[in-house]
Amino acid sequence: MPDRKKVTLPYLFNKVANHQPITWLTCYDYPTAYLQEQAGLDMILVGDSLAMTMLGFETTLPATMEDMIRHASAVRRGAPNVFIVGDMPYMSYQPSVETAIRNAGRFMAEAACDAIKLEGGEEMADRIRGIVNSGIPAIGHLGLTPQSASALGGHRVQGKAAKSAKKIIDSAKALEQAGAFAILLEMVPDRVCKIITSRAENCIIMSLGSGPDAHGQLLIYHDMFGLYPRFKPRMAKVFGNAGEVILNGLKQYVQEVTDQAFPQPENWFTMTDEEFNELQGML
Ligand code: KIV
């Protein structure tokens, strides 16, 4: 996609106005970002899920601002035209509005992100407001919010009961009123997602496992391609088994080196007889 234009906020809102679903995936590295740019993705989330998918931790909590900036800037180099969202890691925004603004600013200044995302409902509305008032586009994240998985009782669907669904709907409105230009609904029932989407006035609603009625969809890249060994969430569709392809290639490499079938002459470099003879004379 050589002539692709940079994806901007007006472009995203235009898609919503024209009822064209927005495409969004996680990404954490340069080569994958390059492929996602070529595929024509609208948005990339450099998620704190990198603590699990890239660094092998059991939760997202160990991701640091340094990890996030390092990976987000690599993604930007691979995908210059995609709308890139930096995911604010655990405790980079919870302590105070000022902490939130400073760390959101780092994503913009040090990694050239287009926006940030943070988890939490009404109680995080002041963080969203502060960040947006500082000129940084912000996305809210409701439903299953992995940084609070312990308090939520694990990685489970949120808002199945009327009371908890109402709380999510109220939080979505509070985040929109605080200035969030988009909200991600993770593992929320489809009917709740539909209500929130229909009530959104100037806010893009994105779904991760929350059904088809949002303005767009997000998936975790590693779940789509069999690249995360521990588990595959039910909501993730596998679009190809890259993990299997890579594993087969690795097994073949081990076998060929063991059998001395690799390398072959086209896989190494040589020197002329003349230079070699001169070299031998020097030894
Ligand atoms: O970190 C991440 O990838 C996320 C998704 C789970 C939405 O926040």
Explain what the structure shows.
There is one protein chain. The protein is an alpha/beta fold and 283 residues long. 43% of the residues lie in helices and 14% in strands. It contains 12 helices and 8 strands. The protein has helices at residues 9-17, 30-39, 50-53, 65-78, 97-111, 125-133, 149-152, 162-178, 190-199, 221-224, 242-258, 273-282, and strands spanning 22-26, 43-46, 83-87, 115-119, 138-143, 182-186, 204-208, 216-219. Strands 1-2-3-4-5-6-7-8 form an 8-stranded parallel barrel, surrounded by 6 helices. β1 (22-26), α2 and β2 form a beta-alpha-beta unit. α2 packs across α4, α5 (97-111) crosses α6 (125-133) and α6 (125-133) packs parallel to α8. The termini are far apart. Residues 26, 45, 47-49, 60, 87, 146, 184, 186, 208, 220 line the site of 3-methyl-2-oxobutanoic acid (KIV).
